[in-house]
Amino acid sequence: MEHPEPSVGPEAPLGELRDQIDAVDKQVMDLLARRLELVAEVGELKGQHGLPIYAPDRERAMIAARRAEAERRGLPPDLIEDVLRRCMREAYAHEKNLGFTRQAPDLRHIVIVGGSGQMGQLFGRMLRLSGYDVHSLDRDDWDRADELLSDAGMVLVSVPIQDTVSVIERLPTLPDDCLLVDLTSTKAGPMAAMLAAHPGPVLGLHPMFGPDVDNLAKQVVAYVPGRDPEASTWLLEQIRLWGARLHQVSAADHDHAMGLIQAQRHFATFADGLHLIREDRSLDELLALSSPIYRLELIMIGRLFGQNPELYADIIMSSPDNLALIERYHDRFAEALEILRAGDREAFIARFREIGEWFGPHAGRFRAESQSLLAHADAQR
């Protein structure tokens, strides 16, 4: 009796193709390993010559060139840019560990008040990578404050918002040439306190990022010049070498902007979370039914509640100006709700267009920029 020949399925050719893909993946990993070796050499040269790890002009030119080359070769330019940006992010982290040129070689030791806190630890690590002698003054060390601070070249205050002014006022007399700096997310109160407590150079800093960043490349640090700005030039240049972007601002303008960027935004996220738990729907079901953009919004809401509630309470409640701003937000929410209650479609469209005109060309850029974020969020499902 004859047996029919077994039908040829797709598994054999699929297996061969998958083997070839695996081999290509190995080649890609070999090339990435070589790229990191070259990055290490670049980092060493930057460290020797005092160059920042982030060079925006070089990055823009390289991305533009690679996108053009991708188009010539029939490859998706967005794919090539995504791969390169991920490689560069790893490169910045790698270069950071190689150290930095010390911009103030003759500076005496640095004391970080609150150096055991997360942000204090981050700045302490970056300063040590730059060759500075860094000490920490924490809650249980105040009996040694005179000893630690008597000959300090810089004192950096990194304590919770509600403690900042009282800690500054508690500082003993510092050397006249000592640079006094704070890292607080409000600036008017701490700046006034530092200028009153110390007759020497003063600088206000606000790192616009959390302490969990791997490196400072592309991060923003706001700074408020205080007394004797020339005395803090070395520190600002040091921060540039770490890869951060610096933005000068007055204390008043800073605090108003932070009301919008931090206090109002965090409060609105808090209210979103409160609304979600009162509606009491299954989070898994919401995620399963989410479009990429709603999933990303849920991620950003949930991210807040995975962090320290005391920190966010302090940020939101740090100033009566924040309360006034949030009350204005509440009034404008009510204004928008009235349009909905009235069923006034034309009014909604008119307000929508008015807001779009305020955003201007940024609206189109933001839409394009968000596409890569949405694609990444969708890929993480």
Structure described in brief:
By secondary structure, the protein is α/β, with parallel strands linked by helices. 62% of the residues lie in helices and 8% in strands. Helix 9 crosses helix 11 (292-304).
Write structural notes for this entry.
The chain is α/β, with parallel strands linked by helices and 381 residues long. The chain has helices at 11-49, 56-72, 77-96, 118-129, 145-149, 161-170, 188-197, 233-241, 251-279, 283-288, 292-304, 309-316, 320-342, 345-359, 361-379, and strands at 110-113, 134-137, 154-157, 179-182, 202-207, 220-225, 245-248. Helix 1 packs across helix 3, helix 9 (251-279) crosses helix 11 and helix 9 crosses helix 13 (320-342). The model has no long low-confidence stretch (mean pLDDT 90). This is Bifunctional chorismate mutase/prephenate dehydrogenase. Belongs to the prephenate/arogenate dehydrogenase family. Pfam families: CM_2 (PF01817), PDH_C (PF20463), PDH_N (PF02153). GO terms for molecular function: chorismate mutase activity; prephenate dehydrogenase (NAD+) activity.
